[in-house]
Amino acid sequence: MNMKKFMLLSAAACVALAFTGCKSSESAYKKAYEKAKAQENAGYNISQNTPSETQYGNNEPQVKVVTPAVVTPVTETPVVDNTDNVAVRTENISVVSGEGLKAYSVVVGAFGLRANAEGLQQRLKNRGYNAQLGFNSQKNMYRVIIATFNSKAEAAQMRDQIRGEFGDAWLLAK
User: pTM value?
Assistant: First the structure.
């Protein structure tokens, strides 16, 4: 029975401590808020903070000079040449259908079945692209190539242009 009383008194002390702790922190927040409000109302009035003319020994009012901001329109988008960081895959590809590959090609599809690759190639040709079909015999995969270039920069630029339209395009090095 003595243990029950001890537990009850301990619980009551904890509850009392919790309620008094909340009140003090609440009042601290309230004091900080009131102090900030008072500073805002009194400290940011420009007319109170400007020195009077008589402090400088002349009767001319002090004039603040404001330089207007010059807005120049952007006429060109800056070109960022980041071709060194563009990922390129190197594969041994033989051309199945097309004119031949240059040093860098933009691949928009990879298929295990030739018929599926030819279907995408035909859709690209119908849209005006000179699409080619390549085959990687090591991976047994057909690659649908939308364009081929001599420079990596041109290939990367084309890849970036068509990514929104065709999804995940990537560069292939010969």
Answer: 0.53
CA 33 centroid distance within chain: 36
Report residue 47: phi and psi, to 5°: -65, -30
| Amino acid symbol at 27 | S
pLDDT digits (tens, 9 = 90+) for 80-112: 556 678 889 999 999 999 899 999 999 999 999
Give how far Cα 49 sits from Cα of 46, 61, 66, 80, Å: 5, 14, 18, 48
* CA–CA gap between residue 113 and residue 106 (Å, rounded): 20
* C-alpha angle 75-78-81 in degrees, rounded to nearest 5: 155
| Sheet containing 88-90, strands listed edge to edge, beginning at the edge strand earlier in sequence | 88-90, 170-173, 104-111, 141-149, 132-136, 94-97
Structure confidence by residue, pLDDT tens digits, 45-60:
444 444 444 445 555 5
Question: Is 142:107 a contact under the CB 8 Å cutoff?
Answer: no
